[in-house]
Design the sequence.
């Protein structure tokens, strides 16, 4: 029997079957949602340490999206519970402990309200880690008190600031002495009080990978890297055209320093007010910290990170970094 007439349509049938399978596969791939990229972290994970820190003691100043360091530790029994206006020191003396990322500060500024009444506070004495930093006279009402700090008085690490009220001898321990609203540490003697305005000038949204930094300091974002993580990518701009920053990815460490495990990248407004950077991660795994160390010049300077994301290997959304990037 001659089967050739029956075999002639076979190639067409095979082609039709192949096209049908390809179309079905294409439809499934189009309908399938892509895997989400690795996440940077959860709200509250980001931490910012200002180069010249200002601590606000009012309890309603907390920002859940980013922890502003250093966090003050108040001497037990020497302070009252924080209230809307600040926190009261009581008795004859009170201490504040601060764990500082860096040292070398030459001025300490207090925004405070001395106690009045029959036994008003007329002076305030400061010692830092046992070093005498002088005594200042106070006046009635809210005021700024600036202490000049000796060279080397404030090293990196744990520091104790003791406030003593010389004219409070014999006053009951529970009696209020000084209401402290803000405390600032500055690198120069002539530091003014303008740095106290809008001190919570760091906005971080980990879900969208956006951040705005308006003070010199270090922004730290802990991340958990999976094996498929290829790189960290960032888009940035300096709106005022001034400032620079360094970005690094380090292994997490309890001391906050970590070990650099990827190339550092710099962003410099002198080389361009905006750009992109990419830090290769080569599939590293484990807990890491992304650090952005910003050095901003001028009261209006800021660093805006418009996109900060981790990219998976083979991610079709990844784009090569162009010539506008600043890679060192």
Sequence:
């Amino acid at each position: 029997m001659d089967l050739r007439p029956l075999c002639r349509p076979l190639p067409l049938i095979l082609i039709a079957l192949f096209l049908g399978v390809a179309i079905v596969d294409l439809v499934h791939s189009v309908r399938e949602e892509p895997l989400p990229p690795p996440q940077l972290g959860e709200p509250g994970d980001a931490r910012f340490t200002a180069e010249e820190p200002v601590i606000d003691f009012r309890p309603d100043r907390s920002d859940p999206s980013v922890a502003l360091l250093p966090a003050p530790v108040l001497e037990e029994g020497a302070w009252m519970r924080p209230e809307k206006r600040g926190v009261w020191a009581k008795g004859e003396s009170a201490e504040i402990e601060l764990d500082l990322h860096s040292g070398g500060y030459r001025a300490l500024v207090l925004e405070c309200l001395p106690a009045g009444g029959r036994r008003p506070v007329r002076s305030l004495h400061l010692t830092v880690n046992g070093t005498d930093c002088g005594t200042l006279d106070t006046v009635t009402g809210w005021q700024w008190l600036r202490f000049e700090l000796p060279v080397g008085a404030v090293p990196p690490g744990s520091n104790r600031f003791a406030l003593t009220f010389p004219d409070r001898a014999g006053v009951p321990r529970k009696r209020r002495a000084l209401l402290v609203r803000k405390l600032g540490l500055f690198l120069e003697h002539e530091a003014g009080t303008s740095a106290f305005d809008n001190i919570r000038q760091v906005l971080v949204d980990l879900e969208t990978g956006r951040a705005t930094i308006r003070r010199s300091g270090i922004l730290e974002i802990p991340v958990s890297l999976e094996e498929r993580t290829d790189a960290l990518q960032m888009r940035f701009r300096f709106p005022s055209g001034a400032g620079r920053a360094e970005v690094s990815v380090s292994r997490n460490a309890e001391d906050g320093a970590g070990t650099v495990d990827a190339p550092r990248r710099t962003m410099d407004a002198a080389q361009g007010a905006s750009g992109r950077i990419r830090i290769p991660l080569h599939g590293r795994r484990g807990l890491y910290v992304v650090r952005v160390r910003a050095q901003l010049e001028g009261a209006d300077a800021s660093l805006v990170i418009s996109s900060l994301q981790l990219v998976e290997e083979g991610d079709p959304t990844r784009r090569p970094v162009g010539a506008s990037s600043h890679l060192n």
Remarks:
- Helices lie at 4-7, 10-31.
- The chain has two helices and 21 strands.
